[in-house]
Amino acid sequence: MVTFFPMPYQGETLYSMIARYHIWSGNLNSKATLRDLFNTTSVTAGRELPANINLLINNLPDKCTLTVDEIIKKHTLYKYYTAFLPSERATYIYDLMSEGNGSLIFTALGLCNNNMKIDSSLKYCNQCVESDRNNFGEAFFHIEHQVPGALMCQKHSAELYICNKSTQIKNRQEYLNLEFSISEKDTVVATLNKQIIEHQKKFGKDIDSIINGNFRFKEMNFFREHYLKELIHKGMAESRMKIYQQDLLRDFKNYYGNDYLTLLGCNFDVDNKYNWVTAITRKHRKSFHPIQHLLIIEYLNIDIKELFNSEYMEVRKKIYKSKTDGEKISYRERWSKLGKDYPNENTSFIRKLDKATYIWLNKYDKKWLAENSPVKKTYGHSKKIDWKKRDEEILQEVKEVVEAIYNSKEKPERATVGVIGRRIGKAYLLQKYLDKMPKTKEYLQEKVESVKEYQNRRISWVRENVTINGESEWIVMREAGVR
Ligand SMILES: [Zn+2]
């Protein structure tokens, strides 16, 4: 039992609280601190998901009101790491942190086969350090800065620094106090630019929802189901079974860029079919790193609160369970009989003969239905997409962008299909499916600029915008980048 323990600051990590205790206690080495707090010296200084929390709570003074639950949920990365795990796994990790064996925690996350590099260096924001010193008299480690994937301080939109000492320290039992660990040699996690800041703002908002929200855990594949729904909506997939992986990979890369993905340790090779983006959209039993989920969520423009509040999977399962096996057998028999009676017909023909059976099986016994239906003859993959409607929609978007390009007062950009596609965020559609959208195609053919046309436009732009007093044609040409 200890006679005092620092009360946590809001958003402070447990690690940081113990580091502050260590200084206040006047203990000469970390072993003495461990003995004070845990009654044992066989504890390591967990930075992200520390263990033995129950032992610690039992050693705190009676007047200290901290609970195990509060520590785990508010002062460790538990909520971040378990947000996308099923509840049994999350509970297991909770138990390991509370009183189990800390060395099993990492394995329990299921990330061992994931190629993500785990970086557990400690991070801080200079402006937070300053304001914490002003407000509380000391600096401390903030939980939101330690979240893997965080490259900037959300509060200040400022660069995060890696506490150099935390990457060099050999003793895994030592707790670093931020106040005494800041060094001139500390380097930034990433140099921020406009693009990184934009992505990080979204990332920070999602992290905030996860850390401060109170969501129920989801089943395995819950997230995949939702991602698929959005992929279909985006035109990147036609059905559960058919995802246009190449389009998806290219568009995903185009959206984030190699640099950002590399900074997050999530870059991949489009030609490697074992990449994580493909894996996360396929039916899977493995875990993915929260960063990977968050990247998909931002890319698909999913509202994270709506996602976590959705009970879609649970509902589906409940209905499934309430159906009796007898019902299932009889529907299956009816479907199989139709298949035998009309061996040369396709699914849509058979479906019309007994709509009720089809609807029931499609709703409650989908997998069996897919496996026991005539093999689909494919007529291209455009069946479910209403291309006529899409043509109209895309045409509108394209028109707006094209007009913006031609009316812009900025230095001209050549109006190409690629540029227009990227501007509307649907480069893959224009590259691959233009033939399915005749109106858009015709409009583009008319508006897309040849090199010559573009050069002429640049020259007139330079004429209008660059002050030239009696300078020769040659200078105008050079300004315009035309030889
Ligand atoms: Zn800050």
TrEMBL record:
Residue ranges of domain Transposon Tn7 transposition protein TnsD C-terminal in the record: 205-313, 317-444
Coiled-coil ranges (or none): none
Chain ranges of the TniQ domain: 4-160
Domain of life: Bacteria
Classification via InterPro entries: TniQ, TnsD_C
Name this polypeptide is given: Transposon Tn7 transposition protein TnsD C-termianl domain-containing protein
Organism ancestry: Bacteria, Bacillati, Bacillota, Clostridia, Eubacteriales
